[in-house]
């Protein structure tokens, strides 16, 4: 009986975490489309916005600025010490 319960809990945990990742991908995609709508190089903007969103689980509102809304997004830096997130 305990084995069945433990198996059920593990399967539930795995399914719920994968559903969270799918919903987060949809969230990031829609937020990054808005964030990058006025970018000169949209593909690059969407790429880095997506990376930052997945890591920070948030994207600042608007197409520019407002990074105070998401400190993690604001504080991520590239290898040269410049802001990573658009």
Structure write-up:
Belongs to the GASA family. It is a single chain. With 86 residues, this protein is mostly helical. It has one domain. It contains 3 helices and no strands. Helix 1 packs antiparallel against helix 2.
Short descriptors:
globular; 86 residues; mainly alpha; 3 helices; 0% strand
Derived structural class: mainly alpha
Unreliable stretches: 15-22
Number of helices: 3
Helix content: 55-70%
Which SSEs are present, and which pair or pack?
Blueprint: H1 2-35, H2 42-56, H3 71-75
Helix pairs in contact: 1-2
Entry summary:
The protein is mostly helical and 86 residues long.
């Amino acid at each position: 009986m305990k084995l069945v319960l433990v198996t059920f809990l593990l399967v539930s945990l795995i399914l719920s975490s994968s559903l969270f990742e799918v919903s987060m991908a949809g969230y990031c995609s829609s937020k990054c489309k808005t964030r990058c709508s006025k970018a000169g190089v949209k593909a690059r903007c969407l790429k880095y916005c997506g990376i930052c969103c997945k890591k920070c689980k948030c994207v600042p509102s608007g197409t520019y600025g407002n990074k105070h809304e998401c400190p993690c997004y604001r504080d991520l830096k590239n290898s040269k010490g410049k802001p990573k997130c658009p």
